Amino acid sequence: MDSDTIRMKSNTRPRIDFVTAAVLAGGKSSRMGFDKQLLEIDRKKIYLHTAENLLDIFGDVLFVTETPDFYKSLPVRTCSDIYKGMGPVGGIHSALNHTENQYIFLLACDMPVVCKPYIDYMLDQALGFDACVTLKGGRYEPFCAFYSKRVLPELEQSLSRGKTSLYYFLQSINTKVIPEEQARAFSPDLSMFTNLNTPEDYEKYLRREL
Known about the structure:
The chain has about 210 residues and is of the alpha/beta class. It has one domain: Spore Coat Polysaccharide Biosynthesis Protein SpsA, Chain A. It is built from 7 helices and 9 strands. Strands 5-4-1-6-8-7-9 form a 7-stranded mixed β-sheet. Strands 2-3 form a two-stranded antiparallel ribbon. A hairpin with a 2-residue loop joins strand 2 (about 40) and strand 3. The model has no long low-confidence stretch (mean pLDDT about 90).
């Protein structure tokens, strides 16, 4: 298969067509040593792997990236940060500004595992809240999470003041928090939160997939 070809896993229309899947792909990748968008999973770039998995679930997929050329041949949309260098808070702000849907489902480009049953469950929990995140190890997991478009005014205020803490932002809005034990019912090892930050993380993940 061509390296920039998307292989859809089903021919049915995505069930979730009122949510945009937003992938933050603008990190510095300092611990990895090279652009994490170029990692390979199943002999394809990780952004292709992620796009394939998300397009099988969502009707709209958006990558927040400073390298939109990577995505030109893919059936996804791209945008860049409006507030540069502000981390995930800036990425969420940009994604919400570039969707007409009420919610985004947030993922990072270095998170290779997409768990559809847990996404379905989280979406049901998220409705009516400003955000829906999982508590893991006593901390909020800001990715594999849902955010509502109605938090844009608060995000604007935080970013204009230079505040980039996602933890404090989540505490300041109406956030639905899913306990870790509930998440483990869908994935005992919480694989949907796997994050490939370092070469060691990447090698460990590849060994597990063999």
